[in-house]
């Protein structure tokens, strides 16, 4: 956030954001406070301008917040988007979603070749 307030772009990546901010209910007070604090920050509590970017990773909401002179991009990744507190998925928060599916056989082959590039392998592999 310090870089963002200095006019630079900062990215905050929240992996498995559903574990950090699950749906709120009365019996889970600590989690409710964590969700409420994150909502405050996304709504401008960190004094940074709105800057949303597509999320990456699994089915992943991504968003930003407002105020200040820098840019903060918040990206959340989850494989359970419906487990997130609905307030996080509202406009101006983590409101953009990109679903990244399971790769097919051709895509898996391309990924494997990418990771094996430069390695000495037996012929035919």
TrEMBL record:
Biased composition (Gly residues): 60-70
Region feature Disordered, mapped onto this chain: 49-74
First and last residue of the signal peptide: none
Assigned keywords, A-Z: ATP-binding, Nucleotide-binding
Source species, domain of life: Eukaryota
Keyword field contains DNA-binding: no
Molecular-function annotations in GO: ATP binding; ATP hydrolysis activity
Family named by the database record: Belongs to the AAA ATPase family.
Protein's name according to its UniProt entry: ATPase AAA-type core domain-containing protein
